[in-house]
Design goal:
This protein is of the alpha+beta class. The chain has 5 helices and 5 strands. α4 links the parallel β3 and β4. The protein binds tetrahydrodeoxyuridine.
């Protein structure tokens, strides 16, 4: 997180690899005693803020929340609507993509959000939310 402050102070763009590293650190906080599948996420805003999240499971299963929605909720609830990028890290072997609910949840805040699906800092794929959730229902449809 120290690196984030330095990046903001210098007005530099967040590096994909640094955001992945922050998501990997967030994954350590995962509370996933049922699936034992740890996920970490890190949101980067255009204003230079970083918000992290991990998956949090529940003994009654349904209330389980994904890492992406935790990170995005923290970001929005702190007043930052300008999401630029989100990095997600689950398995180091097989790429972990955001689930359908998370894709819909994130799309509320921009179809052009960059989504980094990472296995580790050297192995990752980059998509836009539009690519992951084409032709989606969104705020404009309620006009
Ligand atoms: N999970 C996430 O955190 N993000 C996703 O996009 C997919 C799934 C979590 C939820 C649950 O705690 C565990 O992974 C297994 O489904």
């Amino acid at each position: 997180m120290k690196e984030c402050l330095q990046i903001r102070e210098k007005g530099e763009k967040m590096e994909d690899k640094l955001l992945i590293k922050i998501a990997m650190e967030a994954r350590e906080k995962s509370y996933s005693p049922y699936s034992k599948y740890k996920v970490g996420a890190a949101v980067y805003t255009r204003s230079g803020k970083v918000f992290t999240g991990c998956n949090i499971e529940s003994a009654s299963y349904t209330p389980t929340i994904c890492a992406e929605r935790v990170a995005v909720s923290k970001c929005i609830s702190e007043g930052y609507m300008d999401i630029d990028t989100i990095a997600v890290v689950g398995s180091e072997i097989k790429t972990s993509f955001p689930c359908g609910v998370c894709r819909q949840f994130m799309s509320e805040f921009g179809k052009d959000i960059k989504v980094i699906c990472a296995r580790n800092i050297d192995s990752y794929d980059v998509y836009t939310l539009e690519e992951l959730l084409p032709n989606s229902f969104g705020p404009d449809d309620l006009d």
